[in-house]
Structures are given as structure tokens and as C-alpha cells.
Amino acid sequence: MSGTPSSTWYVDFFTELPNEFWRRAVPPEVTVEEIDFVEERLGLAPRSLVLDVPCGSGRHSLELARRGHRVTGVDLSAEAIGHARRAAAGLDVDFVRADMREIPRDNGFDAVVCLGNSFGYFELDGLREFAAALGGAVRPGGGLVVDFASAAESVLPGYRAEPRTMRTGDITVLATGEYDVAGSRLLSRYRFSRGEEELDVTAIHHVYTVAQIVDLLSGNGFGDIELFGGPDGGPYGIGSGRLLLTARRTS
């Protein structure tokens, strides 16, 4: 398996094989449930202008566009953006290849969604920059949804690193992990296999407390922050598998 990656591991990680695995791994009904949550919790009006960042292969952007919203999806992976553009025929959605910190800061969007556990990709300075970009993207009164499975309150209670094997179609993934105490980060090592093809890659998810996340967002104009443990609207608490945070641009 690959060793510890650089802090910019995400630049080269999301090539065709990992992307195709995750495209297959998430059932369509999961995407529908997540976008139901976004629409209901943010009270999205018809034809809202929505930014999806990072958008990956576009599953959330495409679902939002199918519901009549005007969507911009931003992602750094050329392969993912290419796939999303091919899937978007006839929909009001624009896919842009860019770093997630390079989103427009003209307060032009009715809502921004950051789904799929990408909020922890950056070290603290990078996360501060991303939080500032989010604050600059959303109009006053507009909404934000952050999906984060690496909050300390989720990860640390009862943490155990056990190998997992996952399969979807002809793709098999062996996943192993460890918690880097000194760096407060999760190191996830993956071996993707498809026929004779094999790829070893490592991802980093930086672990932040809920208080840190709330502080970063509050400092960039967001208020009315609420915490949920999933798209069913249940409360977030110690040991919840994921954090779904909603906020409103108040200043």
C-alpha cells in the first residue's frame, strides 16, 4: 500500500478507477434523500442558484438540476468533471474544473452544498480559506449545507482501525486506516483492483471538532447553525456516523 501522502493528496487521487468505484457504490435513492434534505432544510425556492463544491462526478448537481434549480458544480478532478458534463445533457448545470477554494466570491448563490465528506481535505489554513470562500459565495439570507464524517465527535469515540473489503461489479477495494494522533487526521489507504489493473492510493481527512467548524463558519458570516446526524433530520451527537450542518448567511 502507498505511504503517507502529501498535504495535496487530493490533486492526484481522484482518477477514473476510484471515481468509478464511488459512482457505482452510492445508490440513487441516497442522493435523492440527501437533496430532499437540502431542499427542505434550506427552503430552496424554485429555480434557486446553487453551488455544489466539490461536486465530484456530479450526482448532487444533477439531482438538483433535475428538480429545476440552476446549478454550478466545481471540482478539481478532470475525470470527474468530464463524466459530469457527459451526464448533464439537457440540464441547467455548469461544471467547472477548479480548486474548491477558487469559487466565485460575489455573494451570488442562493445556496452552497459541500457534500460527500470533503470538508476535511485541508489542513487548518486551507480550511480557513475554504470557509472564507463559502462566505463569499452565498448571498445574504442564502443557505449552506456541509456533510462531514470526520468530526472528532464522530471519529474518536470507540475508534478502531480494521481492514475492509468493498466490491461493486468488477471493482474490489481493500481499505485500511490509521489515526495520526500528532496530526489529528485519518489516513485511509486504498488498493483498487479491476481485472489486471491495480491502484494504491492514500487519502487524508483532517479531524476537526464541531466547535472548530462552527467557529470557522460563524467568522465568515454564517449563523442559524443547526447540526443533524443524517438526512432524516435526526440530532447529531457523540458517535454519530456523520454530521450534516446547515447554516444561513446572516452578515
Care to describe what's here?
This protein is 29% helix and 32% strand. By secondary structure, the protein is an alpha/beta fold. It folds into two domains: 10-151 and 208-249, 3-Layer(aba) Sandwich (Rossmann fold), CATH 3.40.50.150; 155-204, N-terminal domain of TfIIb (Single Sheet), CATH 2.20.25. The chain has a seven-stranded mixed β-sheet, with helices on both faces. A four-stranded antiparallel β-sheet has the order 6-7-8-9, covered by helices on one side. α3 packs across α4. The protein is globular, with a radius of gyration of 17 Å. The model has no long low-confidence stretch (mean pLDDT 96). One of its GO terms (molecular function) is 2-polyprenyl-6-hydroxyphenol methylase activity. It comes from Saccharothrix xinjiangensis. InterPro entries: Methyltransf_25, SAM-dependent_MTases_sf.
